[in-house]
Amino acid sequence: MAGAGLLSACGSDGGKPTLNWYINPDGQDTLGAIAERCSTEQYDVVTQLLPASATDQRTQLARRLAAEDSSTDLMSIDPVFVPEFANANWLLELPADTIDDDTLQGAADTVVWEDAVYAAPQWANTQVLWYRRSLAEAAGLDMSEPVTWDQVIDAASEAGGTVGVQANQYEAYVVLINSLIAGAGGEIISDTEAGRDATVEIDSEAGREAAAVIQKLADSPARQPDFTVSNEGTTLAYMYPADGPGEFMTNWTFVYANYQGLIGDGEGQISQEDFDDLGWARYPQTVAGEESRPPIGGIEIGVGAYTDEPDFAREAALCVTDEQAQEELAVNDGLMPSRASVYESQALQDNFPTDLLALYRDSIDTGAPRPKSAFYNQISVAIQQQWHSPEDVDPETTPGRSSDFVTAVLEGRALL
Description:
The chain is of the alpha+beta class. The chain has helices spanning 28-38, 54-66, 82-87, 105-109, 133-139, 149-159, 171-183, 205-218, 254-260, 272-276, 310-319, 323-333, 346-351, 354-366, 376-387, 398-410; strands at 18-23, 44-49, 74-77, 112-113, 116-117, 120-132, 162-164, 189-190, 199-200, 247-252, 278-281, 296-303, 336-337. The protein has 16 helices and 13 strands.
């Protein structure tokens, strides 16, 4: 079945090669234009669309690479899948100077496996705390200072607002759990390069602090009606409800452009006054006084190990991730740069508030990547199964139960 869908990396007449670049759906038009710009007299770069979800993207790419598909020249990869693909020898190594001092640390960390660079950071993603300024003011919450999850949940409850997170049983829920644990000074798992012998750390004081936040929100009047199946899209609707003061919401960088695009007079649109009421702040602290560790996401560009054109593919990977590409993705699609210098470009300064750009940049630079493991997919699914439903999360039992299960899955004593 995998073989039936393979594409040729070379022209059918043996002429100019075509490099296939498998892209995720975010910013399709911009990515198509970047592919055209990065085509040369020696080769063409064309885009092939991957499924919408990161899990389905991983599955399709893994099937192709396991079949040693030579037509998978370039691929857009979620950061958590770089270690798995590199460990399986599915990615070609890239030059060490693919990352440098201009690459934000959160993005740089995600493309290195066993001291080698296996992907080029393209755009970086992070979460911030979005909120209605009027809601925070009514609750008496000073947003010029760092705020904790406890403060946000209490403020929303007292002022009649809600708190939006991603708590469905999917990858974004693990993103939430990971940042809560990292914000308390812990980690889900350590010594990940040991593979199945890595040390599971989730049964810790940091794990219990994270579980306490989820439990508090689940029991709070600020929880949203669809809390247990919430995702990035469902939480958007609560910022400007038909009645009520709005929400505090942790979500990705696309939010600003999303609400800006809703300004108008029609049904489902918002007023300029409403948009001006939108505020943003650093991701909430898990523990008061300890710096938060915002989520890190985005897209890296990997070169398939079985490409017929490795030199051209490496060259193209660096072109589609250059400063111009990062600037275009930010301005056109709200997908933020992985290089610090691009935040200073005039195009970004003209399209985003200066303090929001600084917040994005600093959050990416100091954020918490998810565990870098060749077995990340198993780790993630195991945590999802043990921490969902969020209504059942208990600081006294959930971290320990999930630790036992993740360990058993890694050791082959339990199945997902």
